[in-house]
Write a structure and sequence with these properties.
single chain, 484 residues, alpha/beta, Endonuclease, Chain A, 3 domains, eight-stranded mixed beta sheet, seven-stranded mixed beta sheet
Amino acid sequence: MNWIILIEIAYILFIILVVLRALYDTRSTTKALAYILFIIFIPIAGIIFYFFFGINYRKRKLYSKKIVDDEPLRQRIKQNWNRYSKSIGNSGLIEKKRETLIEYIRQSSSSPLTANNEVKLLINGEEKFPELLKALENAKSHIHIEYYIYENDITGNQIADLLIRKAKEGIEVRFMYDDFGSHGLGKRFLQKLEDGGVQTAPFYKIRWYLLANRLNYRNHRKIVIIDGMVSFIGGINMSDKYRNDLNKKNHLYWRDTHLMITGQATTYLQYLFLGDWNFSSAVSFQYSEIYFPDFVKQGTIENEAVQIAASGPDSVQPVIFYSLLEAIGCAKKRIYITSPYFIPGESLMDVLIIAIQGGLDVKILVPGHSDSKMVNRAASAYYTELLRYGADIYQYNKGFVHAKTMVIDDDLSIIGSSNMDYRSFELNFEANAMVYSKNITAQLTKVFETDLQDAEKINATDWLNRPKYIQLWEKVVRLLSPLL
């Protein structure tokens, strides 16, 4: 009996220590409460779950090597960036209501506002991949590729063969892939690249898939940088399923959005790639004018203003999350959101409700059918609350909408890799392009309105009158939304 009592005391003390650690390490009150409930009411399994998923690796300095490697470069180039960014802000090109947003991103991540850019909106893989192939073909110095999902299929091999050919021409080619998202590549595919002269690096390699904490903190970015001049950013991964011109039979229509940028905004994407590469690869590379060209010498390309918002476990603040809060909070006319995983959390819900009740035109486009039943149920609970206040929510039925975009008024478009959920805001490495442009915003608004033609508006009355057991289940799943 004495041993049993000692074991019980030890277990209770251990529970207390784990609860204290969850309180200390977890910034979100909601998420901390969810972990604590798991730890207390689900013996042993709750503790295991917390240690696999709940450790705050930003505080634990998991990426300390990456942060240290980034800092010398950051200090070396941010002075010129900031000087140029301020000059644009004072030029009258940007509306004054965006000044706080621009300055926040600049201060929090040293990401400059740039104006010497040409921006091209690319809808679906059918528009992205031809432009990408053409840009890769024209590479003169280097090619840097970073993808969450890269698959060994027709599209993946088409790009790989081109990369090998460019490497044999003397072009520097670096290929980085997330080791979880691209786990199906296989050794033969990677060896083909290496044998062809392409440098490869897995981001945060997973040694044992049972170590679940390594399944978090993934590199969800989808970026390409060519010669430090041309870049691609958005939601489209490297896979056949993102191309509706392939496998037309028995193929789910895939609706997605990407950007092609020619100009100075490419510089910050290059900086992100350099930090990610030096963290992932044993063969690092350093600052050079080859990778960071002087755009003043290049002359005027176009006059589109772009700023990159990026964050991850290596950033002190959740920059993307805060930038969305500020963008929505400053809206005066409309907010059009497209998101495949809509689990916004309390803060974003608050600013959306304020916007709705303030008379703004708030429309949200989500998938009719999600690829995750749990996520879909959690998202449905958020629909219920927004519908009560008068939001217009549409479910896309033509296929699966995977685009991550936002239209704010007439002058701000946001296109990137970040979903509207906790995983993108806190756990993954993400990158969004903030395009301060009436031209691009008009184009993206038109695309959004076209998408609504293939969507069904949720009838608020019918939705709110659904059976109580369905609404109850959604509320239960919503409690777990910080963990999804």
